[in-house]
Design a protein that fits this description.
globular, single chain, 6 strands, 10 helices, alpha/beta, 46% helix, 224 residues
Length: 224
């Protein structure tokens, strides 16, 4: 680890990592697909959460169905998820985690595929804008996770090289993206992905929750 005076960053995924939204997205996608006569098991949907909409729908429906229904299903999901904004909640001790890291000299960056009103709702749920140095959204990158683009864009914003950064996510897609960007990935299990899956994907450390990560700061990859 570099000295405290040198720039370093922690990049956070948001959905499922800082905010308890994974299952809300699952329900919204399930209903959006049902409205277009496509019944996809919720378990399959859950495992695809974290992918950009195009990749998620192509994975679940195939290219032909995506070409026919993708735009309409994505729009329906946006409407349905928007109706759930008031149910978004940050996980326990998330604001404290972000402020503690900022106080220790880490530049805190959010990397999310959310945009517009969804992004605004997530930031309200977190309630720690004072600790956040920068954020990237779907509008800032050409390719979403598991491509490394969101992680690289986040680091570019704060001028920190991959070796001086850590990424925190909740899905295998997060781990793949961070690894491809050359950034060590810590993972939390709050998105519903198992410890074993996250470890197998390449996470260097796995925690039950953001609160558990905060409690273990002095003993893990984010220690001073």
């Amino acid at each position: 680890m570099q000295g405290r005076g040198e720039p370093r960053a922690v990049v956070f995924d948001v959905d499922g990592t800082l905010v308890d939204s994974t299952y809300l997205h699952t329900v919204a996608w399930w209903e959006a697909l049902r409205q277009h006569d496509r019944l996809v098991p919720a378990a399959e949907l859950h495992r695809a959460i974290g992918l950009p909409a195009r990749e998620l729908l192509t994975r679940l429906l195939g290219e032909a169905d995506y070409a026919q229904l993708g735009a309409a299903v994505s729009a329906a999901h946006g409407t349905l998820y928007g109706q759930l904004h008031d149910r978004l909640r940050a996980f326990d001790r998330v604001p404290e985690l972000l402020r503690t890291l900022a106080g220790r000299g880490w530049r805190v960056v959010l990397a999310t595929s959310a945009k517009g009103s969804d992004l605004a709702a997530l930031r309200r749920a977190i309630g720690a804008d004072d600790a956040i140095d920068a954020l990237t959204s779907a509008e800032d990158v050409e390719h979403g996770k598991p491509a490394p683009d969101p992680v690289r864009a986040a680091l570019d914003l704060v001028g920190v090289p991959p070796e001086s950064a850590r990424f925190v996510g909740d899905s295998v897609w997060d781990v793949y993206a961070a690894t491809a960007a050359g950034v060590a990935c810590l993972a939390v299990c709050t998105g519903g992905t198992s410890r074993a899956e996250l470890t197998e994907a390449g996470a260097v450390a796995v925690y039950d929750s953001p609160a558990a990560l905060l409690s273990a700061l002095d003993a893990g990859p984010l220690r001073d």
